[in-house]
């Protein structure tokens, strides 16, 4: 990891260097609830994913991308259904791999979407996909055959995420979304959409869709068969890794914070100076982007804390020091304000 001096003297980078972040437990709760409804073994799913019932039952905590990925893989295997039992018909485990290998031979992003939607419409009866080109933009539509089976919108969220991130990976660049629309109203977990979908979000639409600029449809597929094989081995983990699709000032501040070895040494004044602006201007820019320096700093500390607390051999006091807290009690209060539970409670809940 870069030192604070190095981080503040280099040009801001486009992609995040740090890998530690967290996800709302909402998704795990909904997946497990449905799994139990269809008769899957909850204890087995929790064990295979590295989660505990106590952790999942606390709606205020957050989990790691690895935990959510393992949970989904466990459901895929146990139910033989990549639609996580939220569809009117299953999409058997391995269908995505077959589609991915077929579309990887496409010449362009346009072909990826055309071939991918055609493939799923032939083999997966629970969903109806549609790809539409207009003069200025393109749209990808997703409809569930029986949306009432997905009351928490987990399958909708997951599939729209997949159909944005996987094609982006194939062409080696982010597909810049203009807008994403949902048929449902604003859900309780809507804050997660800011990380999942880097664009304007609208609700209560006539269909579920996202749209992007037409010009990128000509972008060529750049991944090799070997890189695809490696990618498929990691699925679905890469879809949940936080993407660096943030507004410009939010992204720059996060880059500096995530590169710092000791966040207690970095201040808003330091970052403003390196960005050749004033504290007042930086504060205003972040406010316009819907965030603040303290909020970003806390989010980085929170996600780092969750990662370190997942390491059973690391003392809690050491976790606090790594995050810039000189007193264990101060760290404990901060962690509880971020997650709703004390660090010791969080760690204990992971082991029961």
Automatic annotation (TrEMBL):
The keyword Transcription regulation belongs to this UniProt entry's keyword annotation: yes
UniProt KW keywords: DNA-binding, Transcription, Transcription regulation
Domain called HTH araC/xylS-type: residue spans: 251-349
GO MF term (any one): DNA-binding transcription factor activity
Keyword Transcription regulation included in the entry's annotation: yes
Protein origin, superkingdom: Bacteria
Cited PROSITE patterns: HTH_ARAC_FAMILY_2
One Gene Ontology cellular component annotation held by this UniProt entry: cytosol
InterPro entries: AraC-type_N, Homeodomain-like_sf, HTH_AraC, Tscrpt_reg_AraC-type_HTH
SUPFAM superfamilies to which the protein is assigned, alphabetical: Homeodomain-like
Name of this chain's protein: Putative HTH-type transcriptional regulator
Species annotation: Paraglaciecola mesophila
Lineage of producing organism: Bacteria, Pseudomonadati, Pseudomonadota, Gammaproteobacteria, Alteromonadales
């Amino acid at each position: 990891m870069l030192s604070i001096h190095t981080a503040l003297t280099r040009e801001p980078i486009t992609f995040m260097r740090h890998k530690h972040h967290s996800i709302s437990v909402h998704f795990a709760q909904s997946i497990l609830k449905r799994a139990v409804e269809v008769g899957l073994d909850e204890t087995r799913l929790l064990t295979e994913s590295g989660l505990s019932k106590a952790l999942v039952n606390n709606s205020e905590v957050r989990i790691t991308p690895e935990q959510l990925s393992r949970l989904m893989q466990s459901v895929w295997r146990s139910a033989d259904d990549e639609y996580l039992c939220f569809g009117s018909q299953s999409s058997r485990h391995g269908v995505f791999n077959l589609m991915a290998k077929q579309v990887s031979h496409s010449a362009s992003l346009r072909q990826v979407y055309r071939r991918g939607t055609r493939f799923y419409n032939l083999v997966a009866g629970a969903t109806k996909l549609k790809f539409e080109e207009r003069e200025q933009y393109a749209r990808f539509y997703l409809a569930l055959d029986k949306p009432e089976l997905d009351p928490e919108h987990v399958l909708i969220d997951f599939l729209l995420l997949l159909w944005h991130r996987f094609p982006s990976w194939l062409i080696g660049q982010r597909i810049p979304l203009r807008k994403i629309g949902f048929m449902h109203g604003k859900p309780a977990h809507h804050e997660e959409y800011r990380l999942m979908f880097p664009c304007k979000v609208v609700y209560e639409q006539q269909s579920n869709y996202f749209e992007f600029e037409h010009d990128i449809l000509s972008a060529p597929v750049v991944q090799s068969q070997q890189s695809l094989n490696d990618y498929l081995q990691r699925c679905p983990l890469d879809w949940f890794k936080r993407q660096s699709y943030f507004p410009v000032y939010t992204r720059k501040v996060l880059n500096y914070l995530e590169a710092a070895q000791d966040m207690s040494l970095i201040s808003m004044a330091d970052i403003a100076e390196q960005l050749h602006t004033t504290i007042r201007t930086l504060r205003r820019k972040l406010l316009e982007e819907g965030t603040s320096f303290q909020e970003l700093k806390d989010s980085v500390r929170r996600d780092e804390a969750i990662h370190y607390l997942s390491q059973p051999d690391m003392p809690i006091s050491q976790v606090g020091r790594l995050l810039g807290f000189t007193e264990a009690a101060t760290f404990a209060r901060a962690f509880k304000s971020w997650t709703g539970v004390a660090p010791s409670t969080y760690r204990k809940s992971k082991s029961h």
